[in-house]
Design a protein that fits this description.
Blueprint (H helix, E strand, L loop, with lengths): L3 H13 L2 H8 L3 H15 L4 E4 L2 E4 L1 H24 L9 E6 L4 H8 L10 E6 L1 H9 L5 E4 L11 E15 L9 H7 L1 E5 L3 H12 L5 E6 L2 H9 L4 E5 L4 H5 L4 E2 L7 E9 L8 H6 L1
Parallel strand pairs: 3-4, 3-5, 7-8, 7-9
Antiparallel strand pairs: 1-2, 5-11, 6-9, 6-10, 6-11
């Protein structure tokens, strides 16, 4: 078994770069500290330091060990902060988001904590199954999605509805000059999010008008939907929040037709005795 007492001593010396100063700071003798590090080297089977002048330099194995040691002790501090609700430090906030979710919406959700020096963010994107599995195993604090969980059996998931927005058609203004929605659907090419309620709603709308729309791109990344629309590859079928920057800059325009398709935004959490201390603030923002 790895002796974490030895690992802590090694970490202090590695950051200090000097055995004497590290011993003074930790209130132990230099010889005792040296013995602890030697025992760790024997356990790992590799030297961790080499002496360069008066300074101790990490070997390659030493750098690898220090990286792991920093993460191990940071995790320990995170554990204490999580369980001690009166603690001053805040554990990292781990957020998952569907890959098809608007980046602008994600930034809006995180706005209350962005820029705070006491908050570290971990952001992860993926499909619903992967993200909900991570939430269930407590590797994520919250998942941002456009639907409540579909495969929620056996888990105490809670879907908090944050917002809803009308879906529209957005693109280069010269491609939107059609007198009717049906004419637009017949003449133009479209970019739609993959595996989303938007896609199903759009295809259903077109079928109701007797049109099979020409979908030139199924995209699982909303940022790519924006880029393709900006490049004129087609018209994007998304809520306006996805292309808000382009609309403000007049790089894209919106078609004057109501689609009667809504996209809803949810923050999905799981029932926990010790939820992240910032979650309540984010859910009420």
């Amino acid at each position: 078994m790895l002796n974490y007492h030895h690992l802590r001593y090694f970490r202090e010396v590695a950051h200090e770069g000097n055995l004497t100063r590290a011993a003074e700071r930790m209130n132990v003798s230099q010889s005792a500290l040296s013995t602890q590090i030697k025992q760790l080297e024997e356990r790992l089977g590799h030297p961790l330091f080499e002496r360069v002048g008066r300074r101790l330099e990490l070997t390659e194995i030493g750098r690898i060990t220090l990286d792991h040691a920093d993460r191990i002790f940071a995790t320990g501090q995170e554990l204490v902060a999580t369980l001690d609700r009166s603690a001053q430090s805040v554990p990292p906030l781990r957020v998952g988001a569907l890959s098809t979710l608007s980046r602008n919406f994600q930034i809006r959700f995180l706005a209350p904590v962005l820029g705070r020096k006491d908050v570290d963010l971990t952001l992860r994107s993926g499909n619903e199954d992967v993200l909900l599995a991570a939430l269930k195993s407590l590797n994520l604090d919250v998942v941002l999605a456009t639907e409540p969980p579909r495969n929620a059996a056996g888990a105490d998931f809670v879907a908090h509805k944050l917002d809803e927005q009308a879906v529209g058609i957005h693109g280069k203004s010269e491609r939107l000059n059609h007198p009717t929605l049906r004419g637009l659907l017949v003449k133009e090419a479209f970019i739609v999010p993959t595996e989303s309620s938007i896609r199903a709603g759009f295809v259903g709308l077109a079928e109701g008008l007797g049109v099979t729309p020409r979908i030139v791109a199924d995209v699982d990344d909303m940022a790519m939907v924006r880029l393709l629309a900006r490049e004129g590859a087609g018209l994007a079928v998304v809520p306006s929040v996805v292309v808000a920057d382009e609309l403000r800059a007049n790089r894209l325009a919106s078609a004057p037709f109501a689609l009667d398709i809504m996209e809803r935004f949810y923050a999905i959490t799981i029932r926990r005795s010790f939820p992240h201390p910032l979650l309540e603030k984010l859910l009420k923002a």
